[in-house]
Structure to design on (447 residues):
């Protein structure tokens, strides 16, 4: 099982870069936002992975159970709020994309730049 | 066994992410993104983060998908291919991936109890939660009480994002230069003529609302809290809007009331903090809210979680409403 000890971090790296690729290489603005969500989820995965303790359980005390091993609650708190903040910023991004579509008639990056140059 | 299941799930997640980037059909990409979020939520659960899993499932797989779909109806269904810097981007991404994977070899192995991240403040929180806060869920204790300032900041970010969306859609769309919108099937009437979704939906909505309230008020004792509950309640209302049409939900929750909810939740949170000062404690110190410090903590956490829930519900419904109303103008 030692073999898989770093697998979570590798998946984090790959996901981060898949998201980043979508943000920099895809001209479509909606696709960029989806890429940004993947990027965010990768960071969430990193934090939650770091908080895991072997043999641990979710950090909720149970009555009558002694000597429980708990995973680290702190990264969980950070990510819990980050997810909700993430959806709020995504919503704002979607709002901007819809407004861009209304003004420019397109959500493709190069077409918008083309229109701006005119 | 759990480790193998985790590895299998993580591999599935990578495949899903690749498919999302690969497809040119944006509808497919959005649905795949919902599946992606659900898989990530299962992984979070395996990694002992029950609260986070609940949040990700409610928000990533539920609300996020809805908002993206609402935006798709207003923009485009397909992305056009053609990107000049594709090879350059691939090169940058490949090199960065290799460097980062090289860097992971210095990370502590998964679940190592001696890792630096487990040494600093986390044991202190686990040790002091029972005596100082008196609630079983340490995540809620840290979120609402120990680090109440942070959470107040997060609520302000959500509030700001909500205000931003309302501002963006405050202006009436210009008809002449506007794009050709996909005409809704029957404007403002939702899926009222589709029997099965309607019957199933009507059966589900009360239970979703009840579950939302349970998650809201049981957050001290089990996984849950204001953020998750807000998303679940908002999902119930959005489902209602989809089934019965936008006009119907506006009679239940007019935009003025929603705006009040958005501001009211954040104000409630801030007011609890100020009440702490007035009663002789410091800002967001709940111990002074009642004669017994533990009871004070309970009251404080209940109130600020309610504030969080109200703001999150208001913002998410408003955002959905702003996008959906734009489509039927």
């Amino acid at each position: 099982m030692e073999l898989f000890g770093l697998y979570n971090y590798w998946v984090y790296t790959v996901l981060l870069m898949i998201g980043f690729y979508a943000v920099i290489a895809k001209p479509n603005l909606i696709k960029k936002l989806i890429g940004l969500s993947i990027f965010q989820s990768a960071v969430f995965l990193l934090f939650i992975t770091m908080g895991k303790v072997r043999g641990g359980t979710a950090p909720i005390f149970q009555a009558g159970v002694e000597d429980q091993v708990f995973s680290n609650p702190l990264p969980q708190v950070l990510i819990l709020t980050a997810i909700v903040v993430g959806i709020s910023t995504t919503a704002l991004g979607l709002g901007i994309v819809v407004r861009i579509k209304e003004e420019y008639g397109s959500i493709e990056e190069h077409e918008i730049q083309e229109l701006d140059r005119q | 066994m759990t480790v193998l299941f985790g590895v299998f799930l993580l591999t599935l997640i990578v495949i899903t992410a690749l498919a999302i980037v690969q497809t040119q059909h944006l509808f497919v990409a959005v649905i795949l993104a919902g599946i992606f979020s659900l898989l990530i939520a299962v992984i979070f659960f395996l990694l002992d983060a029950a609260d986070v899993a609940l949040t990700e499932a409610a928000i990533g797989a539920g609300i996020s998908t809805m908002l993206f779909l609402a935006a798709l109806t207003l923009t485009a269904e397909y992305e056009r291919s053609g990107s000049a810097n594709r090879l350059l981007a691939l090169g940058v991404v490949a090199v960065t991936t290799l460097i980062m994977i090289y860097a992971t070899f210095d990370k502590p192995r998964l679940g190592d109890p001696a890792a630096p991240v487990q040494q600093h403040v986390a044991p202190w929180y686990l040790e002091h939660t029972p005596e100082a806060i008196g609630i079983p869920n340490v995540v809620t204790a840290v979120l609402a009480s120990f680090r109440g300032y942070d959470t107040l900041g997060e609520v302000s970010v959500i509030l700001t994002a909500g205000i931003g969306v309302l501002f963006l859609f405050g202006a009436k769309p210009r008809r002449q230069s506007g794009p050709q919108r996909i005409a809704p099937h029957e404007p403002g009437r939702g899926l009222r003529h589709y029997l099965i979704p309607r019957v199933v939906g009507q059966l589900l909505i009360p239970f979703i609302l009840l579950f939302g309230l349970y998650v809201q008020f049981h957050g001290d004792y089990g996984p849950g809290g204001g953020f998750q509950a807000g998303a679940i309640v908002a999902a119930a209302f959005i489902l209602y809007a989809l089934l019965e049409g936008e006009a119907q939900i506006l009679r239940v929750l007019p935009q003025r009331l929603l705006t009040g909810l958005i501001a009211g939740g954040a104000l409630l949170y801030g007011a609890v903090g100020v009440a702490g000062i007035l009663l002789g404690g410091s800002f967001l110190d709940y111990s002074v809210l009642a004669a017994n410090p533990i009871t004070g903590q309970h009251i404080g956490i209940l109130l600020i979680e309610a504030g969080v829930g109200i703001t999150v519900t208001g913002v998410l419904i408003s955002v959905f409403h702003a996008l959906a109303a734009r489509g039927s103008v």
Observations:
- The radius of gyration of chain B is 23 Å.
- DSSP finds twelve helices and no strands in chain B.
- Chain B touches chain A through 109 residues (CB under 8 Å).
